[in-house]
Write a structure and sequence with these properties.
The protein is of the alpha/beta class. Helices cover about 45% and strands about 20% of the residues. Helix 2 packs across helix 4 and helix 6 packs parallel to helix 7.
């Protein structure tokens, strides 16, 4: 690994030559945008305007070692310790999942459909990207979030401070319904969850970067019941979702119909709908609580 010169254009060529067996050209360009903004404060326009400028040795070393980490299949977000979500910057590390674009779609849907909602609960919050994004766009609302992981909650709390938002965080195991009913001592207009939903059998089709770096506790469903988290949250809604309130799930398309059927079978909701994401996959469920 050697960069031809200190120029920005040679650095860009270096990244493409070193990473082209792991990422395609457009992905490398996206990584470069993140890296150069993070380390040098460069915008995308700067890539063109400053491409023949020389970088100092200190910056060049940072960018060189970043590329070495990328070659180990470590996601750029974990290297930089940051990810962007809903136009907000979040701290991320190996304790939490990297926020995904599909989840941005979920936040967008919730904000559009719940303009008068006053209280929100996010279950399995991870980095806190969902509740923090909701709070930033609905400052007068009360937003709560829970997770089983102490480490994840530490990250979420850090992100609440970073984004200047007031979120009430709760540590609880959502699979323990009795415990969660006690610890979550409020009721809510909207309950949201993007729980672990990947089946163990799907590991073989997942990328090495995800399998080797992201927390399996937040990714995979253990045991024989692939929708156990959804079932427990639906059951919790009987106690914690306000009359006429709404429940939103992010789903695994492979088990979406099973979640739909359990939601209907619960006889708790007056309306249950599956929704597709921008790529056409069944990705979300919306359920509205009964009036009485």
């Amino acid at each position: 690994m050697r960069i031809a010169s200190n120029s920005l254009v040679d650095l860009i060529s270096f990244y493409h030559s070193e990473l082209n067996t792991i990422y395609d050209a457009s992905e490398i360009d996206a990584i470069l945008n993140l890296v150069l903004e993070h380390y040098l404060g460069f915008s995308r326009n700067d890539l063109h305007a400053k491409k023949n400028e020389n970088l100092n040795q200190s910056d060049l070393l940072k960018l060189y070692f970043c590329c070495k980490e990328l070659k180990k299949n470590i996601p750029i977000q974990y290297i930089l310790k940051e990810a962007w979500f809903y136009n907000l910057r979040f701290y991320v590390d190996a304790a939490v999942l990297i926020p995904r674009p599909e989840t941005e779609e979920l936040v967008d849907l919730i904000l559009k459909e719940n303009k008068t909602a006053a209280s929100f609960l996010d279950i399995g919050t991870g980095s806190g990207c969902i509740p923090i994004s909701l709070k930033k766009n609905k400052e007068d609302s009360n937003v709560y979030a829970c997770d089983i992981s102490t480490e994840a909650l530490t990250v979420a709390e850090k992100n609440a401070v970073l984004n200047k938002t007031q979120i009430d965080f709760i540590e609880t195991d959502i699979l323990n319904t009795e415990l969660s009913i006690k610890k979550i001592d409020k009721t809510f207009d909207v309950i949201i969850s993007n729980p672990p939903y990947i089946k163990s059998a799907e590991k073989e089709i997942m990328t090495k970067a995800v399998l080797d770096n992201e927390p399996h506790l937040a990714l995979f469903v253990n045991g024989n019941d692939d929708i156990i988290f959804y079932k427990k949250i639906i059951d919790l809604c009987e106690q914690k979702l306000n009359t006429n309130g709404k429940l939103y799930f992010e789903l695994n398309p492979l088990t979406a119909d099973n979640v739909l059927q359990y939601s209907i079978k619960s006889k708790q909701f007056k309306e249950v709908t599956l929704l597709k994401d921008m790529s056409g996959k069944t990705r979300f469920l919306r359920a509205q609580n009964k009036l009485i």
